[in-house]
Specification:
It contains ten helices and 25 strands. By secondary structure, the protein is α/β, with parallel strands linked by helices. It has three domains: 281 residues, TIM Barrel (Alpha-Beta Barrel), CATH 3.20.20.80; 104 residues, Elongation Factor Tu (Ef-tu), domain 3 (Beta Barrel); 87 residues, Immunoglobulin-like, CATH 2.60.40.1180. Helix 1 runs parallel beside helix 2, helix 3 packs parallel to helix 4 and helix 8 packs parallel to helix 10. InterPro entries: A-amylase_thermo (IPR013776), Alpha-amylase_C_pro (IPR015237), GH (IPR017853), GH13_cat_dom (IPR006047), Glyco_hydro_b (IPR013780).
């Protein structure tokens, strides 16, 4: 299986994104995408909001709230049409659930609070006093449809703005009806206690909040045919709550959901501890692998044999979603992790063509990046061809040739029903080559590079070995030139997703 993150941060705020994806979902399936991670589809603080500035969980582009009926991505009906087409084409959809906080309250409420040290949220830096906080959510456009709960100050643990004096700080809300921060251990211990991230931070120790959000999960599953959920910012809210949320979906709709969490921390031990807490019902994005890619791409002659050192895919491959870039790490974003352009084809080969991890291809690498600083599709437009190589040839046992610092390779032997297999060679220095065994059953066959970056032909010897090459700072994917599906590599991927058709 291969998944795709179906957006980048600077997708135009034209409310046409659901329509764009719906038009292209068939082509994405053809090139090897099985599931699409949708952008956050709940109403944000404005019609331009990406959804991480979430206002109303129950508004999927149905109600006139915060300046429009549709979200940045489109209307609920367009979303449902995308879901219908995706189901017809055999492509699953993953929802991006933003459950940590809310933005754009409808009114202010007075409450008691204490300022805390931003670098240690357990340290108080003021006495308790009254603030005027944006914490009143009435949802006037939706009313009580789907949910009757209105949110008030006691449904939140903290805010970062006092409207009474215009002061910005991190405020812990206190009072008889408030529980304060979640316990360290139930949230990440970074900054003392990392419960507070942004906006109006939801309190999952409050029974009304827990009940409403768990109910939203089962409501969402009734509204849309989903295969899974991507959970945003999971290190900032209750693990205990998230266990209940997942259990509720399993009990209501049966098991088989795919759940992946954004636990963005370059600490393998903390990630593994989180997986243990969730009883391994969860996957996590392999953050250490992203940083390894970034470091290797910026180094001169780095040791490629160490690319998987201290990564989740190395230690817990069944729980690892591997990626090269996402909306947070792309250029000009808060968690930017630059990966040099020359290395991206190598990185995609490392996540797509091997036998471990669940790879996630990024929309910005397939279709380019819009906005003030636009970028074209990466890898010279060849990401779809690497995806197709995975779909057609990356099956069966794997033999690694990690025997040289700047040039590594591996072989996939195929299976009885996917018999072709492939050989992959990549170099982060000069031109490279590997003598590798692909199997005596391939003796006499002529193999070529499906990417066309190396124009040589390799004849497999009677002993099943061939000498496979790649260019300088490049990758080559070698397959029998008569293998089933080879004609697909001459097709053109339609990367102009914004073109009106």
């Amino acid at each position: 299986m291969t998944m795709m993150q179906g957006f980048e941060w600077y997708v135009p705020a034209d409310q046409k994104h659901w329509v764009r994806l719906e038009k292209h979902v068939g082509e994405l399936k053809k090139w090897g995408i099985d599931n699409i991670w949708l952008p956050p589809g709940c109403k944000g603080s404005s019609k331009d909001g990406n959804g991480y500035d979430i206002y109303d969980l129950y508004d999927l582009g149905e109600f006139d709230q915060k300046g429009s009926v549709g979200t940045k991505w489109g209307t609920k009906e367009e979303l449902l049409q995308l879901a219908r087409t995706a189901k017809e084409k055999g492509v699953g959809l993953y929802w991006d659930a933003v459950l940590n906080h809310k933005f754009a309250a409808d009114h202010r409420e007075k409450c008691q609070a204490i300022e805390v040290n931003p670098e240690d949220r357990n340290e108080h830096v003021s006495q308790q006093y009254e603030i005027d906080a944006w914490v009143g959510f009435d949802f006037p456009g939706r009313g009580t449809k789907y949910s009757e709960l209105k949110y008030h100050w006691y449904h939140f643990t903290g805010v970062d703005f006092n409207a009474a004096n215009g002061h910005k700080a991190i405020y812990k809300i206190v009072g008889e009806q408030s529980n304060g921060w979640a316990q360290t251990g139930d949230v990440d211990g970074e900054k003392g206690n990392y419960d507070y991230l942004m906006g109006s931070d939801l309190d999952y120790d409050h029974p009304e909040v827990e009940k409403d959000v768990v109910a939203w999960g089962t409501w969402l599953a009734k509204e849309m045919p989903l295969r899974g959920i991507r959970f945003d910012a999971i290190k900032h809210y209750s693990v205990e709550f998230l266990e209940k949320f997942v259990d509720s979906l399993d009990e209501t709709y049966g098991k088989g959901w795919f759940f992946v969490g954004e636990f963005w921390k370059d600490s393998l031990s903390d990630m593994r501890n989180y997986l243990d807490r969730m009883n391994h019902k969860f996957s996590l994005f392999d953050v250490p692998l992203v940083y390894n890619f970034s470091e290797i791409s910026k180094s001169n002659g780095a040791d490629l044999r160490k690319v998987f050192d201290h990564t989740l895919v190395q230690t817990d491959p069944v729980s690892a979603v591997t990626l090269v870039m996402n909306h947070d790490t792309q250029p000009y974003q808060a968690l930017e992790a630059p990966i040099e352009g020359w290395f991206k084809p190598l990185a995609y080969a490392l996540i797509l063509l091997r036998d471990r991890g669940y790879p996630c291809v990024w929309y910005g690498d397939l279709y380019g990046i819009k906005g003030e600083h636009p970028f074209p599709p990466s890898c010279g437009g060849m990401v779809p061809h690497i995806m197709l190589a995975r779909k057609l040839y990356c099956y069966g046992k794997q033999a690694d040739y990690f025997d040289f610092e700047t040039c590594i390779g591996w072989v996939r032997y195929g299976t009885w029903d996917r018999r072709y297999g492939c050989a992959v060679v990549l170099s982060n220095a000069g031109p490279g080559w590997k003598r590798m065994h692909v199997g005596e059953m391939h003796a006499g066959e002529v193999w070529t590079d499906v990417l066309g970056w190396d124009n040589k032909e390799v004849v497999i010897g009677s002993d099943g070995f061939g000498e496979f090459h790649c260019g300088q700072t490049s990758v080559s994917i070698w397959v029998n030139k008569d293998a089933e599906g080879r004609e697909g590599f001459s097709d053109q991927f339609d990367s102009d997703i914004y073109e009106e058709k």
